[in-house]
TrEMBL record:
Alphabetized Pfam families for the sequence: ETF
SMART domains per record: ETF (SM00893)
One cellular-component annotation, GO: mitochondrial matrix
Record-annotated Electron transfer flavoprotein alpha/beta-subunit N-terminal domain positions: 27-221
Cofactor: AMP; FAD
Main localization, broad class: mitochondrion
InterPro entries reported in the protein's UniProt record: ET-Flavoprotein_bsu_CS (IPR000049), ETF_a/b_N (IPR014730), ETF_b (IPR012255), ETF_beta_N (IPR033948), Rossmann-like_a/b/a_fold (IPR014729)
Subunit-level organization: Heterodimer of an alpha and a beta subunit.
GO biological process: amino acid catabolic process; fatty acid beta-oxidation using acyl-CoA dehydrogenase
Similarity comment: family membership: Belongs to the ETF beta-subunit/FixA family.
Name of protein: Probable electron transfer flavoprotein subunit beta
Keywords on record: Electron transport, Mitochondrion, Transport
Amino acid sequence: MSALRILVPVKRVIDYAVKPRVNKAQTGVETNVKHSMNPFDELSVEESVRIREKKSAPGGVEDICVISAGPPKAQDTLRTAMAMGADRAIHVETKEGEDLEPLSVAKLLKSVVEQQKSNLVILGKQSIDDDANQTGQMLAGLLGWPQATQASKVMFEKEGDAVTVTREVDGGSETVRAKLPMVITTDLRLNEPRYASLPNIMKAKKKPLEKKKLEDFGITAERRLKIVKVTEPPPRQGGGKVDDVDGLVSKLKELGAL
């Protein structure tokens, strides 16, 4: 197996513990809140570092590069990824509030993969802001690479370039096998990400962070979808009590459930 050059896309999103609130214009949610790395991307960074630490891949890991497209504050997310163990970072700077759609992100990553000569891309199956779950699949399609989505376990064979991935499906799990280069998207049961220690946070400040623009990759922030309106979900109605089984049956018939 050839040495791995792993590319790990990460995204700065509203922190998972923050309850999003719709803005007054009903065009989106309030973004002036705490942000952090997308939880699924934390899994991707952790898995990449573990592959190196555990020497899982016979050819070893030559490079772990993290990349993020976002406003200047996205650099904090990249520094966190480097504190977790990534070697270097690429920041593709966009304007504040300029969100890229999955297809644009996939095209951007395709160009980066070709420039960086990556042979493995590990990314979260989705980001918790738009929940699109599309970027990994689109990237594999554009590259013409095999893909293993929703990975809960990744294993490298002792000989050759084959990788075996266990993925979660409805009602159980499925095991797939493919050869490098390939795209893997991560699911929650894959691992438990480490916390970035203070010494590693300080070391991350000295690791290389390359700044780029969308134009450097021939990509535009063209939007194909338009958000018409964003509203809060309707409040849930309170439940009711019944005296006996007959009352329950009558109530279910009344609601059209029987």
